[in-house]
Amino acid sequence: MLNRVLGGQRRRFDDLSEAEILALAISAEEDDARIYAAYAEMLRDEFPASAKVFDGMKEEENEHRGMLIDMFKKKFGDNIPLVRREHVKGFLERKPFWLMKNLPLETIRQQAWEMEEAAQNFYLEALKRTKDANIRKLLGDLALAEQHHKNAADDLSDEHLGEDALEEEDKQKHRKFVLTYVQPGLAGLMDGSVSTLAPIFAAAFATHSTWETFLVGLAASIGAGISMGFTEAASDDGKLTGRGSPIKRGFASGIMTTIGGLGHALPYLIADFWTATITAIIVVFIELWVIAYIQNKYMDTPFWRAVMQVVFGGSLVFAAGILIGNA
């Protein structure tokens, strides 16, 4: 976690040279073209019109890549350095292809919009950091093209999701809300609920004291909340991804992490040990299934994979806490 907070070996975007910015843009366009090609194949049988939209977006990304390569060769020569998004702080990690299979159209549309939002922000930020007039013009043109791609993603919603789609301004607000509050909050809730199981139930069965167990749960929940909050805030300043204020995201993640841990710590305010423990176990059971549902609905995780990750994994953590407490 400390490595994630500090950014590991990743470079700061502000420290990149003009050549490295162009190299990063080239690799990013390559990655996005591959993702759009995957989306097109997933949609081709059921939504052929939408598949054609993504085919077109893929071809445009390839054209952008060609324009960037030509500019790089003109300015810096033929040797393009390998600079990828995962090498630079502030970029969201792209999910591997096997985690994108069987996604509903609305989820694909949302992900495409987020990709183009991040790409547009990248070009606008890159434009501020370049002095060459030709490079600035190219980056500005590409930022405008990414805006058109966002509109294309919205066209999919209008065509296939009915006439009751939100107006454009409401869509923008909703997406920003999801990126800034919902996604970090859900990640925090899941982390807080699972990570605090072992210390709370280890303390419970080691001490058989409800008050001491509550104090351990309170400390573990608040500590995890602080850690997750700082990690989320430090991981991305929001300029490139469009995810909004890091402070807001940090508070959303930290608060929900704390709530996730307190869910099964609060029953130990009950004085009777076994009444408190049985209540806490029931709460844990409900929490784990709710988290699996949330992962399936909001985090694009197939339901049974979410069950294995959260319910089965959480049960192992829960069992580990009991075994350690009884040791």
Brief summary of the model shown:
By secondary structure, the protein is an all-alpha fold. 74% of the residues lie in helices and 0% in strands.
Describe this structure in words.
The chain is mainly α. 74% of the residues lie in helices and 0% in strands. The protein contains eleven helices and no strands. Helix 6 crosses helix 9 (246-262). It is elongated, with a radius of gyration of 23 Å.
Strand percentage: under 5%
Give a short account of the largest sheet.
Answer: none
* Total of helices: 11
How large, in whole angstroms, is the Cα Rg?
23 Å
User: Would you list the SSEs in sequence order as H and E?
Assistant: HHHHHHHHHHH
Low-pLDDT sequence parts: 1-7, 161-166
Structural class: mainly alpha
Average predicted local confidence, pLDDT: 81
Query: For the terminal residues, how far apart are their CA atoms?
Result: 28 Å
Instruction: Let me know the number of strands.
Output: 0
Kindly state the percentage of residues in helix.
over 70%
Shape annotation: elongated
